[in-house]
Amino acid sequence: MSPPPHAVQSQADPVSVWTRRSLLGLQELSAAEIRSLLFTARGFSDVSTRSIKKVPALRGRVVANLFFEDSTRTRLSFTLAAQRLSADVVELTETGSSVSKGETVADTARNVVAMGVDALVVRHKAAGAALVAARAVDCAVINAGDGKHEHPTQGLLDIYTLVDTRLKRAGGVDPRLEAFDLTGLKVAIVGDIVSSRVARSNIAGLTRLGAEVVVVGPPTLAPRSLESLGCRVEHELDGVLGAVDAVNMLRIQFERHSGGAGGGGGGEATKGSPAFPSLREYKQAFALTRERLTRLKEGAVVMHPGPMNRGIEIDGEVADSPQSVIFRQVEHGLSVRMAALYLCVGALGSRGG
Ligand code: CP
After folding, report:
1. Which residue from 68, 76, 80, 154 has its CB within 8 A of the most atoms of ligand 1, so it is best to mutate?
2. Residue pair 313/191 in contact by the 8 Å Cβ criterion
3. I want to staple 94 with a disulfide (CB 3.0 to 4.6 A). Which of 63, 68, 267, 314 is the partner?
4. CB atoms within 10 A of CB 353
5. C-beta of 153 in contact with ligand 1 (< 6 A)
6. Burial (CB count <10 Å: 0-12, 13-18, 19+), residue 196
């Protein structure tokens, strides 16, 4: 497979490093594979700024979005990413499909692929759902978030944002593959770590590229056992803020807490959880408030994968502050997802998966 038309070339060929037909998680990837995805994403990053936002890389291919759990950012950006690569896109959600009648993930995947689809993008509330789909079919499968397990493209776009910020401050684009390195960078991930697939993918990818990761939350949401993932665990945010280069704030996933009083409908402020005594106490200890923002070291950035609950884990003013890179994360999601589709579908086509 040839590199993306506008990729900056390096001595190492980033495309030949990638031989997988599926992207299921960052925990299973090498540093070279992660760099290959990020490098390819950078090659696609200018497509969204053109008057005609398309390249022919996947012309004639078909991507199916199978979203069995709600999504705004991931679903729309996979759709746009596939369209920008000139692929056709079909969409399936639980509501309105035969999943609501009890059809399994594996059978759904087999039926969709029987119609000539080249890639499945799978989001599901169950950990391992994308792996089940990948075992059932012989096309590319990309995990768009499976339960509490992994959200690899979110981890990649977060890492891309950190690298991009670092390189721009250092004077611009470094054309080398090796520029995708985070040695010396310190990142705090704060909040409901135990429920978070975003945290798991971030910890794996960041540490693979040399960053130090500290996760912060109450012991119920950030248990010491998480250190087995290669990060440090802290239970006090104020002691960490001045020492990190980035702070990634996570939503409390009430819907994944057993016994909580969670539920939908925008009533976050009234929700409860068995994981902490009250939302007021949680916010006092772990919310990124305007006051806490002043304790960050100069140049540190504020991140959030979305959806944000303004006024709970993050103040609205903090989310909209100059230190916030939250909407840059969303922007980078497009080129990262173009890269994931391009590499996985291309690997299948040219190397037999
Ligand atoms: N960050 C993220 O996965 O957002 P969505 O649930 O809106 O896709």
Report:
1. 154
2. yes
3. 68
4. 15
5. no
6. buried
Cβ burial, residue 156 (10 Å; 0-12/13-18/19+): buried
pLDDT along the chain (353 residues), means of 10: 45 78 98 96 93 95 97 98 98 93 97 98 98 98 98 98 93 83 97 98 98 98 98 98 98 82 44 83 97 97 98 98 98 98 82 40
Distance 71 CA to ligand 1 centre (A): 5
Residue that has been written with the tokens 């665990």 in this structure:
233
Cβ neighbours of residue 90 closer than 8 Å, sequence gap 6 or more:
62, 63, 64, 65, 112, 117
With a 6 Å cutoff on the Cβ, whether 74 touches ligand 1 is yes
Phi, psi of 63 (to 5 degrees): -110, 130
Distance 152 CA to ligand 1 centre (A): 12
Number of folded domains that form the chain: 2
Alpha carbon of 307 to ligand 1 centroid (Å): 6
Pocket of ligand 1 contains residue 43 by CB under 6 Å: no
Is 186 in the same domain as 299?
A: yes
Q: How many CB atoms lie within 10 A of CB 114?
A: 9
| Closest ligand 1 atom, residue 306 Cα | 1
Give the pTM: 0.92
CATH number at residue 21: 3.40.50.1370
Are 176 and 73 in a shared domain?
no
Q: Are residues 205 and 296 in the same domain?
A: yes
Residues 139-160: pLDDT tens digits? 999 999 999 999 999 999 999 9
Do strands 246-249 and 186-190 pair parallel, antiparallel, or not at all (unpaired)? parallel
Domain that holds residue 46: 14-151+332-351
Burial of 181 (0-12, 13-18, 19+ CB in 10 A): middle
| Nearest alpha carbon to residue 196 among 182, 178, 215 | 215
